[in-house]
Amino acid sequence: MKNFTYAAPRNVADAVRLAGQPDARFIAGGTDLLNLMKDGAQSHGAIIDINGLALGDIVQRNDVIRIGALARMSDVAAHPAVRRSLPVVSEALLNSASPQVRNMAAVGGNVLQRTRCGYFRDSGTTCNKKAPGSGCPALEGENRGHAILGGSDHCIAVHPSDLAVALLAVDAVVLTDRRRIPFADFHVVPGTTPDQETVLGHGELITGFEIPVTPLAARSRYLKLRDRATFEFAVVAVAAALNMRGDTVRDVRLTFGGVATKPWRSPEAEEALRGKPLTTTTITEAGRALVRGAVTRDHNAFKVDLVQRALDGLLRDLGGVR
Amino acid sequence: MTADSEYKRRTVLKAGSAAVTATLVATPAATPAAAAQTDSSSVDMTLRVNGRDHRLAVEPRVTLLDALRERLDLTGTKKGCDRGECGACTVLVDGRRIKSCLTLAVMRQNVEITTIEGLVRGDKLHPLQEAFIRQDALQCGGCTPGQIMSGVACISEGHTRSADEIREWMSGNLCRCACYPNIVAAIQDAAK
Predict the structure, then answer these.
(1) Which domains does chain A have, with CATH numbers?
(2) Which chain A residues in 151-190 lie under 8 Å from chain B, judged by CB atoms?
(3) How large is the ipTM?
(4) Domain B36-118 CATH assignment equals 1.20.1070.10
């Protein structure tokens, strides 16, 4: 790891000012950043430790739950208001990483974690995320873990955060030191600039998330499929939130991880269900709508089928469909 | 196994550790004094480990794991993958388990750090250490300090209601000798 200067500001204004330096980076949990710096995938001249900022609270006020950016994954997962009103968030967190990492990693940093694409993490390979224009070996190389949705000729790396998929499903808003960003607008697809993963400006600080408490979010669930039982990133993940009126789907959110270059919401799949009964037919149609634009590579075509099965299983479970 | 034999086991470990320390002191580059020689980018800090304050000066990039092992000679905490994947470096910070390779020493001031060396009370092993011996929950021992620190936290968190639950909540600690069944048994044993 290359050395850096270190500062631990005590308030947001100082933190943002310090982070304005050209090669500065915030550190909270550090569980991803330090690995990236050890592996040489990133290096920064100045590290700004924000753990001294008062951004760790989880509070419910009226119909909004506010989660501070420095709240740790384990504390958010166990919080009674989150478990009661946002089960998909708690489940996604408990299915992430390991107990130790969940005690360390902050939720603000979680949604900013970088892809686990091996070509990105290996300092000895080219990668358009690491060095724009250098090329993407994953397109023709080892791409079993890569995206079938939202990719481009420049990058097909999957966004690894479970929490982000859940926050997208419950209409979260990202709060920064300067603005509010709907979660759906926060991450961006790679296009021709895969080094840009979010709309955050340089030195902009996530201060927390606001999530509305709704009947939709209260009936929500997360299903994560992976290569081993636990402590592994998703091969395919589905978050679903469902609001029924009698037998009819009044409203629904369907978001996906492991299959796309950013936390992925499928309005087409949702539309296939909204206003209709939840049946084998409509669930199958939703799955087909999800993968209609999928682009597969040599090793990841299995995800097209797997993600539809995962959606089917989760919706049946959540909707009580036999 | 009797308390006597447990004590002997610890004495052997202690003697081995003392020998290693002596070797290190004989090598000028590795003495604590040399380590404390700061260049302009070193940071003065105090780490509170196992109830004792340690003053040291290290570069900001030094992880808590490296500070514990290389500067404080607390080599009970092991360095496996150095990427947060194996759990060998698990320590407690204010009673919560973390991976010491994934955090900077400079970030862990003003907190209570507990390593495997801090579990004993006088000559008495921690109940989970005794359970590991009773249940034969180790072979090479490389992962054991991390398993035990993680297990202590797993028990205090209350995640021991079933073997499945223990397996899930101990998933951040890998054992390449595959002692998993005995590790689960030791945690169940100590949680009683």
Answers:
(1) 220-319 (3.30.390.50)
(2) none
(3) 0.96
(4) no
